Protein: Spermidine/putrescine transport system permease protein PotC
Amino acid sequence: MRKVLALYVPAATLLGYLFLFAPLLVLVIYAFNAGRSTVVWEGFSLVWFAEALGDRGLRAGLKVSVIVATASAVLATAIGTSAALAVVKRPFTGKNLFSTLVIAPLVLPEIVLAVGLLVATVWTGVPLGYGTLIAGHVLVSIPFSFLIVRAAASGLDPRLDEAAADLGANGRQIFMRVTLPLLLPAILSAFLLCAVISFDNFVVSTFVSGVGTTPLPIQIYAMLKTGLTPKINALGAMLIAVNVLIILVVMGRYLKTIRKQS
Structure:
């Protein structure tokens, strides 16, 4: 029985990784396909990378997605961090209710939030565009930043703040010199997660995007009407390469920090 379990764990892990990464590998491989098919290999070519870089629609969608993802991640991280610190460090009436309301978008269907946002924008007369896109993505992302920062803040020793106060630091100095440096890894993680959630968002973007602010996921979905080509594979391969590069840079800095500490 132990031998079976010893084989089952690595086999299940390997199958799990194959299930996750095999589609990405196929996507990257067919980005170099010479033909127009995304399922039949017809030879090696880099033409689709040039096609993807030269497509105005894809470039415009990528620009919108990057702008919205960056702005919404900054706002969602700031709001989520403030809410998390308030819950962890400040006693107030209705704390549990407040926490529940902050994470409520996690349990609500995203399409319900999207329809509600659309109704609210129509009722208030706010034009659809960058503002509505960012607001929608912030609403969806806040629970994630809140939960990440709250978990990190709960693990901080409250005696650190007391010691800083005893040494004459005011509230702002305690936050900037004690709390913020300790929470910085969690805040950065929350920011990156919110950016990814915003960049990949489709449902909310469908309802609250306006003319000239079509994000990349909707742009790709619209291309289904004319049929997919390896152009999309090439774009996906480039995005994967950027993500891998970011991970390598972050991991490199993390390893350097560990080596300095040891």
Observations:
- The mean pLDDT is 86.
- The CA atoms of residues 76 and 142 lie 5 Å apart.
